[in-house]
Structures
1.
Amino acid sequence: MNRIIRTIAALATILTPSICGGAQFYVAPDGDDTWSGCPAAANADRSDGPFATLGRAVEAVRALPTDARGGTVVITLRAGVYELAAGIRLTRADAAGGASITIEGAKGEQAVLLGGRSITGLGPVTDAKTLLNIDPAVRDKVLCLDLKTLGITDYGRLRPRGFGRPTYTSHMELFLDDRPMQLARYPDEGWLTIATVPEGQDGGQFTCDSDRLKRWTAAAELWLHGYWTQDWADSFVRVAAVDPDKGLITTAEPHGVYGYTKGRRFYALNLLEELDAPGEYYIDRQAGTLYCYSPSPLDKARLCLSVLEEPLITLDDTENVTLSNLFLECTRGTAIEIKKGKGNVVRHCTIRNTGNAAVAISGGQANGVAACLIYNTADGAITLSGGDRTTLTGAGHYAVDNHIYDYSRWCRTYRPAISVQGVGNRAAHNHIHDAPHTAILFGGNDHLLEFNEVHDVCRETGDVGAFYTGRDWTTRGTVVRHNYFHDIHGPYTHGAMSVYLDDCASGTTIYGNIFVRASRAAFIGGGRDIIVENNIFVDCAPSVHIDARAMGWAKAYAAKDGSWGIYKKLYAVNYDKPPYSTRYPKLAEILDGDPAVPLGNVVEKNVSYRGRWLDLQSVKPEWVTWGENLIDGDPGFVDPSAGDYRLKPNSPAWKIGFKAIPVEKIGPQSTPGPQ
C-alpha cells in the first residue's frame, strides 16, 4: 500500500505545474524528475531538489500558466553529463505569452548534453578467428567491447556522402577524451593513387599498385574516400569487389563523384585488418563488437559512442529562446537546428564531435550563434539561411565572435565553417582556421562578412577559396570588409584564393581587408561590378586577379543554355524590375551588351607589398576602372615581423586616400565558449 501511495504522489508531482520563484528550474545528475525542480540542489532529506533530465524541465515550463512565466523562464543545468535518448524540441507553443526561455549551464560548471553513450569495460580480444584479422604487431594492444551487452544495437551506416550529395547523418563514431578517434584506414596518413582506369572514367572501377589489397578481400564493408577526379570534390564510395591479383577495385553505385581518373588520390577505411595505429577504431556491425587501439590507458579516459541522429536541440518556429553556457557533443547529426522563428540565439557554448554541423539556422529572422567554440564537426559548422530573394528582404541572421576550427572532418569540400545564404545575413568577428576547404561559403544578396580572422584553410584541396561564391550575376550587394586573411595555400590543382568570386560572380565589394601570404588574394573570375578598394596585400601571388573566362574557355558554360544556368538565375529574380532594378541598377542593364565581358570592376586605393600585384587574363585594361594604388616601395608598416600591418603616420598610402583599417576589431570580441 505504501508503495502505491508513493507512486501516486510521484505522478501527481510530475503532472502538477511546478511554479518556482521567477520561473527558474534546475537540472542536476543527482536530481529526480518527481521533484519540483525549484532548488538548485537536493535538500537534506532528499524530498525535493532539481530535476534529473532536461526533458522534464521543458515539461515543467510548458505546464506553467502564461501569467506565471514573467519575463524569462530559465532552465539551469548543473555540472554533469546528460545523455539524451531523444532530442529536445521547442515549438511556437512554447513561446506563448511573449516570455523568453533560456536553457543554460550553471556559470563556472560544465553541463554536457550528450548525443551518445559513455562506455567502459573494454578488454583484450580473445576470439582466435578475429585475432587472425588483426596485425600481429598490435594484437595485444587492441581492445574490444560487446555493444549488445550495453543494449546498443544501432550502429548507423556509412553512406556515400560528399560533394554534391545529400547530407547524411554519420555512422556511429567513437570519441576519446573529447576527440574523435579515426575509423581504421590505410594508409594511416597520406593517400593511395589510382594507377589505371580500365573501363574509362565512368566505368566504376580502377586499379591500384599496392600489395595491401590482399588484406582486404574478406572485409565485411570496405569503403574508400577520395578526390576521384577534381581536387575540389571528394566523396565516399563502397567497394563491391577487390581483385588483388589484378590490383582491381570495383565500386558500388553511386561511384566516385565525377568518376575515376588516373593519378588521383584516395584511401581505404572501415577495416579491422587496418586497425594498426594508436587512435583507430572499428565496429563489426554484424557481431555488434567495438574494437579500438587507444593511444593512452583507458582507466581514466572518457569514451563515448555517438547514438542520436536527430538534433540534440531543435527550435521550431520559436521566439526569444537562448541556449547558453552548454557543451553539446557526441552525436551523429547536427547539434542544434533553428527553423524559422525570431530572436533565438546560441551563445557561449562549446559544440564539438558532431556527425553533421554544429548549428543550422533556416528561415525566420534575427537568429544567431554568438561567442561559441566549435570544432571537430563532421561537415561544416554554422549555416545561416534566410531572407526573401524575391523581395530582397533581409533575415538578419548572424554568426559573431565564434572560434571555429577542425571542421569538415568527414565531408571535406563545400562544408564551410559558416555558410551564408539568402539575404541580409552577417558573419563577423569569427576566428576560423585549420580546415581542408572553404571558410565561408556565401550566396544571395546583401550579406556582411566582416572582421573575421581566417588562416590555414584550403589545406587539402585545390581551386578553392577561403571565402567563396560563384556562377550568379544576381547575388549582389555583399560586402567583404576588414577581414584578416593569412597563410592560405591550396596544395593541389589551381591552388587557393582568399576571396574567390568564381565563374562570373558579380557585385561584391572587397574593402579594407588585410591579405598576408594569402595566395591569389582578390580573385575576380569573369564577374562584373566588383569593387576592390583600400586593401593591404603582402606576399600574395597575385594581389588581384581578373579574367574574362565567359568570353573564352567557359563560354559554353556561361551561355544561355549552359550548365552554369546563370541566365535562368537572372530571369528567376526579375532582374530588370524592382526591387532588383532599383537596388542594383547595373544588373538591370546587363543584357544591353555582352554580359560575358567583365565590365564595371573597380580597383583603387590598395597597398600591395612584395609578391605580385596583378594578373589580367584576356582582360583589356580599359575594361577596369583603375584608381591610384600603392604597388612600389615600402608602405611603412608598423611592425610586419610581428604581424602588425597598420600603417605609420608617414606612410605614402595616406596620400592616395587610404583609410585606416580597424585591426583592433578583427576576431572575436568576447571569449568563445562557456563562461
Note: The first strand starts at residue 24 and ends at 27.
2.
Amino acid sequence: MHRTLYFIFFFSTLCHAQVQNLKEVVLKAQRIQSSIHPMSQTDIVQDSILLKQEIGELIQFVPSLFVSSQQNFSQDTRISIRGFGTRATFGIRGIKVLWDGIPITTPDGQTQLDHIPLSSIGTIEVLRGVSSGLYGNASGGVITLKSTQINNEQTLTATFGDFGTQHLVGSYGFKNEKNIFRVILEHKKHNGYRHWSGYENSLLALSNTFLTNNGNKLSVDYSYFNSPLALDAGGLTADEVKVNRSQARQRNLNYKAGEKVKQHQFTTRWQSKKWTAYGFFTKRNLDAKLPFEFGGQIDLRRSYYGLGIQKDGRKKQWLWQYGAEAAAQRDGRNRFKNILGERGAATLDQSERFYTLGIYGIVELALSDWRFRASLRADTHYIRLVDFMGNNSDNKNLSAYSPHVAAFYSFSPTLSSYVRWGTGFETPSLNELSSNPTGETGFNNILRPQQSQEIEVGIQLKTKISDASLTIFTTTTQDEILSYELSAFPGQDFFRNIGRVDRKGIEATANLFLNETTTLKLNYSHGTYKTQDGNDLPNVPGIQFNAGLNHLFGKTNLSLNIRHVGKRYADSKNLVEVPRFWAIDLYSQSKWGITTWTMGICNITNANYYDNIRINAFGGRYYEPASMRQTFARVQVQL
C-alpha cells in the first residue's frame, strides 16, 4: 500500500496540468455586510479544503483554536476557541456553527459535524471570541460553513488510505437560469488506528435553488445521514499507552462501547435584496453504549427546528441589520443498564425541552477613517423536563442581554486597527443538566449558566507581499462549566461550575507572498487560561504554532504544514501534564486531463501525541493516542 501511495505522489509531481484555484468568498460571520472585519476572523477557501480529509484538519491552524478527538468517530470532533468548548465530552460545546447561514448548533449549544459533506464546502470562516451579541447562546466563537458554487458538472471521487480508509463520493450538479440543483452521495469506512475505533457511515445530500425574475432566491435542502457503526476505544492510562498505544480500553470492549446515529435534516432559505429568512427541521436518533452498567445504554430521540428573519439597510454613512430567531429542541432521553453490551432494565425515562427566542440589532457608522459598530441582542430560554420514572419534573427560565461595541480606524490604506468589547453567555446543555451526580433522575439544579466579558484589540498590515495581524484579548468568565468523573460512576461524565476563569492571550498571523508561486502562512497564539484557584483550564494549550508552505512546482501544488501544540493539563488541579508535540503533514495535488490527483502524508515524523484528552477522567484514563504516520490517495474524475 505504501509503495503505491508514494508512486502516486511522485507521479502527480510530474503532471503538467493547472491546479484549480478559486477566488476567496467572504461570508461575514460578523453578520453585517461591512467592508471591515476584526482581525480575529479567519477565512479558509476551497483551494485549501480540497487537500484535506476532515473539517478539523482545515481549522486546526487558526490561532487559539484547538481541535481534538478527530480520530474518535463515536465521540465526534471537539473544538475549543480561546478555551471555550473545552469541556465537551462529545461533539462541540459553546461554539456556534452555521451551514449556509442556518444554525446546525442545537438551541442548547450542542453541535455535531458528522453529517457535513466536506466535498460540498467552499469556504470556512472562523470568528474567534465571544459573540453572543450576534448569535446568542453558546457563542464563544463562530464557525460558518458555505457550500461550493453549483455548476453543470458530474464528479466521482475515491479516497483510499492506511487503516482501511475508504471514502467514495458521487456528485451531480445542474444549473440554468431558473434552477440550480445538486445531489451528493457519500460512503465512508475506516478501521481505525486503535483497536475498536472503526466507523462506517453514508450520506445523501440534495440541494435545489429556485431563481425568480426579480433576483430573489428560494433554496431547499435535504440530507440523510446514517452511521450504523462508530466504535469507542476509550481512554488509557499512561502505563497502558507505553505498553501498546493502539490498544482499546478493556472495559470499552467488555461493554461494547460505541454509537449508532440516523439523522434527517430539512432546510429552506429565502433571499431578496434586503430580506433574508430561513427555516429548518432536524431529527437525530442516537443509540449509544457506554463503558459502565447503570445507565450505560442511551436511547436519545432528538428533534430541533427553528426559523429566523433579518433585514439589512444602508443610508449614506449608516449601515444596519436587525432580525429575530426562534428555535425549539425536544429530546426524548432513555437510559438502560448496559449488561456487557446487552440492554437491561430502564434507569431513566424523561422528556426534555429547550425553547429559545432572540431579537437583535446591529448598526455601523462611517466617519472619515473611523468605523463605529454596536449591537444588542436579547435572548430568553425556557427549559422543561418531564420525569416519567420519578417526581423530579422541573422547568427553568433563563434570559440574557448581550451588548457589543467596536471601533475601527484606518491609519492608511495598508494599516488599520480596532478595539472591541462584548459579552457572552452559555446555558448548560440538556445532556449536561440531565447528568445528575446524585444518581437520581431529573435535572442537576446546582448547574448554572456561565457568563463572559471580553476586550479585544487588533492591528493589521496589508501590503502587496504580506498580510499580517496582531490581536490581544482578555476575557473574564463567571461560573465556568467543566466536566468531571466520579468513582461511583466510572466512565460517566458530570458537570459543575468551577467559578471564575480569566483568559488572556496574544494571536499573530502572517501571510507572506514570497513570489507568484510560493506562499508562507504563519500563525502563533500564546494564552493563559486561569481558574480562580490559579490553575490552568485543562486541555487548553498555552502555546500553539502553525506554519504552512504552499508552492506550485510547474502545475503541481505542494503544501507542507507544521503544527506545534504546547503544554496543557489533563486535570483541573494541574497534576498531570500532557506532553508537547510537533506534527508535520505533506500534501500534493495535480490535475491531469479529467482527473485530479491528491496525495497526503500525515504525521510524517511519527510523532507520539494524543488525539484526545478525557478531562478529569477517573483512574488516570486521560489518554486517547493519535495514529502514527498515515497516508492517503484521492482521485477525482470529472465526467
Note: The longest helix spans residues 2-13.
3.
Amino acid sequence: MDKNTWFGFLLIAAIIVGFAMINRPSKEELAERQRMNDSINYAQQMEQEALRLSDSINATIEQSLNTTNEAEDAALMQQQLQNAYGPFAVSAQGEDKETILENNLLRLHIANKGGRIIRAELKEYKAYGDTVNPLTLFRADESDLSFTLVTNNNRILATRNLYFEAICPNQQNVIMRLHSENEDAYIDFVYTLPEDAYMFDFQIVPHNAHLVLAQNANSLEMQWKQAIPQQERGRKFEERYAHLQYMLVSGDQERMSEAKHDNKRETAKVKWIGYKDQFFSTVMIAEDAFLSSEFESTPEDALSRYIKTYSTKTSVAFDVTSQKPIAFRYFMGPNNYNLLKAYDKNAENEAVKLHLQELVLQGWRIIIWINQIFSFPVFDWLMRYGLHIGLVIFLMTLIIKLIILPFVFASYKSSAKMRVLKPQLDAINAQYPPEKMQERQQATMALYRRAGVSPMSGCLPMLFQMPILMAMFWFFPTAIELRGQSLWWAEDLSAYDAILTWGHHIPLFGDHLSLFCLIMTVANLGYTMVTMQSQATDPNMKFMKYMMYLMPLMFLFIFNDYAAGLSYYYTISLAITILQTMIFRWTTDDKKLLAQLEANAKKNAAKPKSGFMARLEKMQQEQVRMARENAKAQAKKYR
C-alpha cells in the first residue's frame, strides 16, 4: 500500500478514537448507570425475598395446624412471624376488608392487605356491552402496587403482603396504617379524594420509621403492574391507541410500542407514568420524581379479555429519619383533552406543568397544531349548547368547509380552465404522436402560458386542505365525546357500525361491513367518476385515471374498522363538496371562460416572455435538440 492509503487508514482510526472519546460517558453518568443497575438488582432481590417469606409463613401455618399443643402453636407462630417479618410481625396477619372512597365521578375500593387500591370505577361511563354497571378500570388482581421495606434487622418486606388498618375512614379520606411492634413507629398510606374530581392525592407518611427500618435506606422501591381490560367494541382499534406513556422531569415524553412487546430502562428522572387505554388512563404522578425506572409493555393474546399488561419498577427518594411525606397524585379517568389540559391551568411555570393532554394522540406536529387551536376548541364550543352529536359533527364539518372554501374554489376554477381548453389539448395530442413527447409537452406548455393557466394551480389548493383532513383523521377516533353516542343505526360513533358480520376474518378487511364506511365509499366513487369525466386528461395517463377510481375502493378497506363518527364526517364533507361543485358549475359559463382565456392569450402573445419562461422554453428546446441528435446517432449506428 502507498503512503496515501496508510494516511487514510490512520485518519479513519483517529476519527474513530476521537469520536469514542467525545461520546464517552462522564463519571456522573457512569455512577448513575451503576446506581440504576444496583437499584434494579436490589428490587429483584427484594421480590425474591418477599416470596420466600410468604412461603415460610404458609409452611409455619401448616405446621401449626398439625400440632396438638395450642400454647406451643402460638409461641411457634409468633417466633416464625418475628423471624420472617421482624418489627412488622404484628401486621403479617389480618382480615381481608375493603374501604370505599367515592365522589360523583369515581369509586375506589382500598384493601386492608397491601393498603392499595384494588378496584377503580368511573361512575359516568359504561364498558361496551354493559348498560348497568359503571366502567371498571381494574379489579382485584388486575392491578398490583407494592413498596419494598427493609427492616432494621435486615428483613426485606413487600407491602402487598402486609395488613393495614383503616383509620378514620369516610367517603373522601382514609388513612391506611401499617403498624409495627413499636407503637410510636408506623407508616400511613393517606388517600384523599376531592369532590367531583378524577385526580386525588396519595401520600406515604412515615412516623418514627428510623426505629424499625434500616438506617441506610435512602429510597423506596416501587413495583406497579396493571392489566388493561378490553372496554370497547373494536379490539383491534383499541389496541392501536393503548400504550404505556411517561413524562420526564425535563418535559420530554416517551411512549412504549403499541403493537409489540417493549421494555425500556430510563435513567432520567420521571414526573409521571401513565397506563393508557383508548379512552381511559391510570396515571401516577410523583410530586418530586421517580428515580431510575424500568418499564415493560406486553400485548395480550387476541382471545384474552385484556388488551395489554403494563409494569413498572422504579423508586422514590425516602429519608428514613424524616417525617416528610412522599407525595403522589393519581389520575383515574377519561382521556378528555380539555379535562387533562385544565390540570395545568393554574401552573406557575412550565416546570410544574403535567401536559397530561399528550395522552390524547393528535398526530404529527403540524396536525397537532391544527387540532389544538381549532378542532378541540370548536368541538367543545359546539358541545356546550347541548346539541346532538350528529348535529355537532355536521356543524363542525360546515365550519371547516367554509374555511377551506377559497382553496376549493381556486381548485375548481383551475379544473374549469383545463376543461374549456380540452379541444385545443386534443388537437395538440393529435398533431404530436406519443413518439414526439418532447414536442407535445412543449406545445402544451406554450398553450398554458398563452392562456395564463398553471396546471399546478389546481393541485396546490388541495395540498393546503390535506393538513386539515389529516387532523380530522386523528381527532375523531380519539374524541371520547363520541363514545356511547348513537346516530341512526350506529350505536356508538367511537366504534365501527357493522350492518353485516361473518364468522371469519378476511385479511385487510375484517369480519364485518360498516355502513357509514360503505356509504362514504359509494359516494366518493360516484363523485370521482363524475369529476374525471368532466376533466381534460392525457390519453397516455390512463394509469393515473385508474388510480383515481381505485382510491375510493381503498377507503373501504382503510376505514371499515375505524370509528363510525369519522366515516360520518367524511360522508358529510363529501356531500358538501358535491353541492359546492354543482353550485360552481351552475355559476360558471364555459363560453365566457374560454373567451377570457383567449383574450389572455392575445395579451400574453404581445408581452415579452419572462426570464423564467424564456429559460424554461430554452431548456425544452435543448432537450428536443439532444433527443433528435441521439436518435440520429442511434440510426447511424445500426446502418
Note: The chain has three domains: 90-357, 370-596, 612-639.
